[in-house]
Amino acid sequence: MTNTGIAIIGSGSATPPVSLDNHGLSKIVETSDEWIASRTGIRSRRLADPQTSLCSIATIASKQALAMAQIDPSEIDLILLATSTPDDLFGTASQIQGQLAATQAVAFDLTAACSGFVFGLVTAAQFIRTGVYKTVLLVGGDILSRWVDWSDRSTCVLFGDGAGAVVLQASESDHLLGFELRSDGTQNKCLNLAFQGQPQPLIDGVTVTQGTYQPVTMNGQEVYRFAVKKVPEVIEKALFRANLTVDQIDWLILHQANQRIMDAVAQRLNIPSEKVISNLANYGNTSAGSIPIALDEAVRSAKIQPGDVIATSGFGAGLSWGAAIFQWRF
Asked: Which of 22, 55, 114, 175 is catalytic?
C-alpha cells in the first residue's frame, strides 16, 4: 500500500440548547460567579436534558462537517467517535453511522477522555496514510452532566455537554504535520470515573460483582500541575516532529479545561494570547468535544483561514495527553 497524506476539510459542532450560568449554579451548590470565573474562566455551560442523547448532538455536528467538506455520507469509510460517555456502553459510533445513513462506513468508539479528539485524530490518520480508507469522520463528544455529582462544587462547576466533528480525507500532500501521544496510568486516581460494585453471590463458590459507575472525582491541584508541565513539553515534541518552531504556529487550540491552564501553557511556550483560541467561558469543559467545538467556531467566524497552522493538545483522565500540529483545509 502507498502512504497517503491527510487533509482536514470540514468541521461542525453542536451543543444542547439548555444553558446553566454560574448564577444559576450558585442556587444548587455553595458557589458564586466570581468564585467560578476567577478560578476556571467558566461563565456558563450547556447541559443535555433527558431527551438529548450523545448520538443526537454528534449527528448534528457530523452533518455540519460533511456539508462544509461537501462529502456525501455514502463516501465515508470510517466513523470514529471519541467519547467517555456513550449512550450505550457497547458503543455509540454505530448509532451515528445509522443516523447519517453512512452505509459504507465502519464505526467504532475510542475512549481517551479529554485527550480523545487528539488520539482520534492520530488514529484516523493511520488508516488514511496506509491507504486503507480515504474518508474518515472523526467525532469528539461527551455528556458529562450524566456523571457529575451536582453536590460537589469542586467538579460540578467545570463540565458541560457538547460534540464536534471533522472530516479527514486522503490528500497528495500531508497536512497533519506532527504529533506526540503520551499516557501515565500510575496517575489514574487524579481524575477518574470509576466503576463501583458489590459482590453478588450466585451459588456456592460463584460470586460476581454488580454495580455502576460513580461520579467524576478529581484532584484539581494535581491535574493542574500535570497539565502545566506536560502539555508544553508534548507540543514542543510535536513541533519538533513537524520541523516547525513555535513562531510558525498561527493558532493554539488546547483542551478547554481551565483558563488558568491555557494561559500558563501559552506563557511557557511564548505564544501570545491573541493566538490562543478559547470558548471555555460559554461551554465549560466538554471533554472530547472541547477541541473540535472550539475549532469549528473559529473556522465559522473566519478567524481560522485555509492554510493556517494549528497546534492542538488534549490532556486529562488516564492520565493521558497528546498534541497534534496540522494545517487547516489547505
From this structure: 114
